[in-house]
């Protein structure tokens, strides 16, 4: 595999845009292997120097497909786990805010039983992970939620000033239409307009510009992407060109990271990378605004950098281990160190099998041996 898997994206994107669909694109790639390599040549004898033994080339393709299929499945799993973790954190915060009065007797530290003290220590074992993330100037999940909430509140205030409405003014029909838009991948967190659909995440916008049935090839479409302007032209049946979209967009985009493909006879799919992470109220400046208070503001875990993802995965792993009554990551590291020293010269446990039940590791990593 290439050290930089994205280094050929520009060349491959040009082919994909010209072909319009994934199937013809794959056909082009395999056609190249057929014409210019020995990939499809079958070795008949052991002395043959070109080609592959029967079935090996197909197996190679299957292995590569399964590799990326597994990567996609892992991305989906991480996103779902992050979503569940965020929901649990939100529910926990909501529960704490509604408990105005204590419903149980408050016990001081001196009154706690050994069992309760151990339980409290276990409950704080996730704290060092967040603490280390803060020391590394990384956003913890709680920081991220607060940042997202603050950013969203700011946009909501702006939206309220522009529209002069609030949550209570939405009538049942508007609610029904909004739910239909959210359920449709083409309009998720976006809207449907006369000539296009649009959807968005915090980092990207997917714009799908409708085209007539006779538009079947990339050469029948011209797309121009600028920092704050998009134009889409199509070729009519009389070979003349006309604008389908030609307008300024509401916020700047990174043109080098944005791309388009054609869905023949349906739409031109334009993927726009936002220059600034924020929720858009509309794509084009003269388009009616959507209510960003009513969209799904969750953020996929895959949008975070590798280091942040690793820390969050560690927190989720620790949470699962805690629920199962198993050692968490910081405990496992300490266990490994103690295992090496357990039977060392001078150890009081020399000659005895390693027994984790004889000690416990608190949240700060200190080991306490039971008497």
TrEMBL record:
GO terms for cellular component: cytoplasm. InterPro entries: CS_dom, HSP20-like_chaperone, NudC_fam, NudC_N_dom. It comes from the Eukaryota. GO terms for biological process: protein folding. Keywords: Phosphoprotein. Pfam families: CS (PF04969), Nudc_N (PF14050). Residues 84-140, 155-166 have a biased composition (Basic and acidic residues). Gene3D superfamilies: 2.60.40.790. Residues 84-188 are annotated as: Disordered. SUPFAM superfamilies: HSP20-like chaperones. GO terms for molecular function: unfolded protein binding. Residues 191-284 form the CS domain. The keyword Metal-binding does not apply. This is NudC domain-containing protein 3.
